[in-house]
Amino acid sequence: MTAATGLHTLLATMRPELRGGEFVYTLWPHGRPLEGAIEAAVREAEGMTVVLPRKDADTLGLSYDFVGAWITLQVHSSLDAIGLTAAVSTALTDAKISCNVLAGFHHDHILVPVADADRALEALHELAAAHGEHTPAPELVLRTGRPADRSAILALTAAAFVVSPVSGLPADGGPREVPLMRALFDCAEFLPEFSIVAELDGAVVGHVISTRGRAGELDLLGLGPIGVLPRLQRHGIGSALMQETIARANAAGERGIALLGDPEYYSRFGFVPSTSLGVEPPCSAWGPHFQLLPLALWPGGVSGSFHYAEAFGIAETGARRAIMDRAPQ
Ligand SMILES: CC(C)(COP(=O)(O)OP(=O)(O)OC[C@H]1O[C@@H](n2cnc3c(N)ncnc32)[C@H](O)[C@@H]1OP(=O)(O)O)[C@@H](O)C(=O)NCCC(=O)NCCS
After folding, report:
1. Residue 235 Cα: closest atom of ligand 1
2. Which CATH number fits domain 3-134: 2.60.120.10, 3.40.50.300, 3.30.2130.10, 3.30.360.10?
3. What is the pLDDT of residues 207-216, one digit of tens each?
4. Distance 281 CA to ligand 1 centre (A)
5. d(CA 97, CA 99)
């Protein structure tokens, strides 16, 4: 994606939200251990600046000048996204509102004087609306992945899984889904038409793969991993990839799709615990997290355990564990 398009998307979808409470910047007393509900800290040669709720600063007897309201831009912005901070601070400057911007891994946060909070929200909503109205959003293209896409898909997978969906922490040695994906591309159970890429303005922003799996004698699809570029998550791209997989699977006469994941997300596509359809998960501990979507040609009367593509087992250290690790703890 080009920087301009990325900026357009970020601005049009930034969803500014006001957190409750008042926050202050204070210089932390030298040598004093950190305490209280600290929201951010910056260490400088001259000392440590911390941002914390005003009530905590008062309790701790810390002095401050700036009392701010905290606005979070709910869009997931990349730390290297170009122009978002400039666009936001320009809009607020135009509205004669001073602002301090804090960039977190997931979101940008703006602190504005408490008295200006409502006007700041209004200015940010106007900025988002202006981008939503005047520049058409680039169209999402869903297409079959090609060998030439593989490095982009692996990079996307690394970005999507940089934080483990299970532990919420970065995985030691990098996301395990990357070697898994590499192994899946090369395995006998790879089904080219079920490697589906989501493309926005010529760039790969999402991908889902389903490979041949089996329950007893019945051929099924084993879906996963699925990933969307972090800064574009929660904009419907994952759902579009799921729907496309389901449509393709039905059109191809597939019987059902199995996956391991959060029932809260996948139930919206019709997935149910696999055991309710007679299919045991590959690992019993997965319980209701192992789900199945019966397709139009679901035969009924199925029984047996699900077996993923061989590649999940071949890349034992990286690949299978990527799946195993997602089992509920
Ligand atoms: C999971 C993922 C593919 C969903 O794609 P997406 O484009 O963000 O999802 P959509 O915009 O279509 O849907 C967003 C909705 O799904 C929900 N959702 C997303 N991931 C979820 C999860 N892991 N568990 C529960 N709900 C989830 C969101 O809360 C949101 O719900 P809402 O519409 O009620 O607010 C994407 O978030 C992602 O890449 N996550 C990191 C990798 C990962 O966890 N992959 C799945 C395991 S293989």
Report:
1. 11
2. 3.30.2130.10
3. 999 999 999 9
4. 22
5. 6
